[in-house]
């Protein structure tokens, strides 16, 4: 018995050391920062909270059904062949940011929720997850569908700002941040996320933390950190220790909405009433399940959320990179396409790396995932 007990204790000590030493887990906010968060209406009893009650169905019945679905084989959960993607024109990107006559606004999707937004001569990078696995231990985690992304991280142009929605691994990637941090002028993040960045070597002077409904000017753009219905955490004891959010990006002529992750809720209508209409919305659509629909929208809710924020053109994101749920990998885009037609919503379905002009007359809408 003593031998078994000694092994258990040794494993626990090892686990604690791994959590503390491995930088991929990030770092909790200092006590000084935590005291500043207490003034936030979204911070209660040491944790951040949603506007509405948000629970996942994790009873015995749900856990049993998830175990069954994990064991059951579904070959359609991953693509059977490499995904098509466009090669990003790196020269055009770097010229667009420095040009005295800014190019028209456009958005380039890199897969999952990673986006490059070029607007009014500024270059913004949203949730830059370029890693091969959304897992702290890539060797045992799920792999990216494609070996590469449409652009090498090293080839990205100077970034005026990185906008993060929350600290989950499929949105905040340690290796990606380490590679891009020297070419980023500012990191704009929800409350608490800055502590992760600081541990990874980002200059604290380059980090701005924001609460929901914060509005501010940045390099001529009007930005707003807006609510989402989700949760956060990178380790075993930091659940909801940082805030999650969506983002409003407003330039001189165009407005873009980025949903981040989250379930459907009344916040979309609030955002639409306050900041809409939007020329383009980039809305979560993927990695959902009825058992956790409170934190990840179903595709039909994605379309309704787009309507709630008063969007004109919808780009579905959070799909085509990783398998983080039980549905077929193409199901999100097929269902959102059907719902968009039903409601008369203009849907843009670019290949990864294909730029979408904001406020244009035509949008990519070929069903490339079927080929």
UniProtKB/TrEMBL annotation:
<protein>
    <submittedName>
        <fullName>Membrane protein</fullName>
    </submittedName>
</protein>
<dbReference type="InterPro" id="IPR024884">
    <property type="entry name" value="NAPE-PLD"/>
</dbReference>
<dbReference type="Pfam" id="PF12706">
    <property type="entry name" value="Lactamase_B_2"/>
</dbReference>
<dbReference type="GO" id="GO:0008270">
    <property type="term" value="F:zinc ion binding"/>
</dbReference>
<feature type="domain" description="Metallo-beta-lactamase">
    <location>
        <begin position="124"/>
        <end position="319"/>
    </location>
</feature>
<dbReference type="InterPro" id="IPR036866">
    <property type="entry name" value="RibonucZ/Hydroxyglut_hydro"/>
</dbReference>
<dbReference type="GO" id="GO:0005737">
    <property type="term" value="C:cytoplasm"/>
</dbReference>
<dbReference type="GO" id="GO:0070290">
    <property type="term" value="F:N-acylphosphatidylethanolamine-specific phospholipase D activity"/>
</dbReference>
<dbReference type="InterPro" id="IPR001279">
    <property type="entry name" value="Metallo-B-lactamas"/>
</dbReference>
